[in-house]
Design a protein that fits this description.
This protein is an alpha+beta fold. It is built from six helices and eight strands.
């Protein structure tokens, strides 16, 4: 009987020691107690569970490409400007194109089908009181057109057209006549902040350039 009591006591004591050890009261435990598991978590108060009503963070959009253009430069000056800006920021896209500026505005009646119809139109203009005109007879796209005047400004051409309308000349038109381009446009594309830095404090030789519209980029 004494032996059984001793064995029962040892069994209870062993279970009690095992329970205490499992709770971590003797230091590091093999299975890890509750206190140890809480300590092992990394900033548990910052954890969040994303639900259906929680908005997801927005993706950062890349900066939009801007464009600036300077026109009215001689070809050599345009080349220098393009080289200067590329040297300041190699990530910018620098393009140079020839600028075709209209040198005059032509008031005329579009080409008629043949010489006979052109002559009849000329006679009609004379009856309406128009004196300054001539029939274009040289071969080319304007053959049998009737020229009513060549002007250095669009405003002057519009004034002439208005005067012709008062004389009941309704078929006259204004056409911008372009000469071979001798000026260039420099276009610079990139983010707005890069453009501002690269094009700031340009040398005096480029001060004659004027702001222009950038050409449409084909997709």
């Amino acid at each position: 009987m004494q032996v059984l009591r001793t064995l029962f006591f040892l069994l209870v004591l062993g279970n009690l020691l095992l329970f205490v050890w499992g709770q971590g009261y003797f230091g590091a435990a093999g299975g890890g107690g509750e206190a140890e598991r809480l300590a092992a978590q990394i900033e548990p108060d910052r954890l969040r569970i994303a639900g259906k009503d929680v908005p997801l963070p927005k993706a950062v959009e890349p900066p939009r490409e801007a464009c600036r253009a300077l026109a009215g430069l001689e070809r050599e000056a345009a080349d220098k400007l393009a080289e200067l800006i590329s040297g300041r920021d190699a990530q910018l896209k620098v393009d140079r194109r020839v600028l075709d500026e209209p040198k005059s505005w032509w008031v005329s009646i579009p080409p008629l089908p043949n010489s006979a119809q052109a002559d009849r139109k000329a006679a009609e203009l004379s009856r309406l009181g128009v004196k300054d005109f001539y029939v274009v007879r040289e071969s080319g796209p304007n053959q049998y057109a009737i020229s009513l005047g060549l002007f250095k400004s669009e405003e002057a051409a519009k004034g002439s057209l208005a005067a012709l309308l008062k004389k009941n000349v309704k078929s006259a038109r204004i056409q911008a006549r372009e000469a071979a381009g001798d000026k260039s446009v420099v276009e610079v594309r990139g983010s707005e902040d890069r453009l501002s830095r690269a094009m700031a404090d340009l040398p005096p030789e480029f001060m004659a350039a004027t702001k222009a519209e950038c050409a449409t980029v084909k997709p």
